[in-house]
Amino acid sequence: MAAPAYKRILLKLSGEALQGPRQSGIEFDTVGRFCDEIAEVHEMGVEVGVVVGGGNIFRGLKGASEGMDRTQSDAMGMLATVINGLALQDALERRGVATRVMTAIELKQLAEPYIRRRAMRHLERRYVVIFAGGTGNPYFSTDTAAALRAREIRADALLKATKVDGIYDCDPRRNAEARMFEEVTYDQFLAAHLGVMDSTAVTLCRENHMPIHVFKMSPGNIRRVCMGEKMGTTVTRTAG
């Protein structure tokens, strides 16, 4: 069997992905399918870090749009990511995968505080490390947290699993003529305001030459990306 293209990855999962067909909350069959995918990649020898969002439970921006103080609202959103992280940990450990949850906000009874060197040791010892609590600061998305953690743990690539096949020139749900990019540069992404990831996250990846893979969260796709197969859209310094 060919060796994986990446030794260490940071996988970004949205909170909405964990709700499955529900309108909100956690759908545990869906969580289990995601964890089957993660366990498969881990078994291949890839070191895996995961950043999970909290939008299936509470989204900071939505609270702020309804009159909440943005800092307070974002704090609630960060707590929601911890709930999702604990759900992922439980599902992974039931599959025999050693796991650690590390949070950017202190919750001693539930998870370890995020310490970069400790996270690196966990990865080297073959734990899947789930990074919860975003960056620990308001006004920053979990996309930015993913880009930050990817750089801090020296990941080879940032993988973002989404509900769509990749990055399009416009919303494919609204425009049947939307065209998907196989490759795009950081500068092209930022100039065209392509969405999917926020500009702060993409800028951080650009400054640190961190490749981004955006692809649909379908069975086998994480493995395919880790093996170097063309999947979804790749964002790098130079395209095509």
Task: Describe, in plain words, how this protein is organized in 3D.
- There is one protein chain.
- This protein has 240 residues and is α/β, with parallel strands linked by helices.
- The chain has one domain: Acetylglutamate kinase-like (Carbamate kinase, 3-Layer(aba) Sandwich).
- It is 37% helix and 19% strand.
- The chain contains eight helices and eleven strands.
- The strands form two sheets. It has a nine-stranded mixed β-sheet, with helices on both faces. A two-stranded antiparallel sheet has the order 7-8.
- β1, α1 (28-43) and β2 (47-52) form a beta-alpha-beta unit.
- The longest helix is centred in the middle third of the chain and has 24 residues, at 70-93.
- The relative contact order is 0.16.
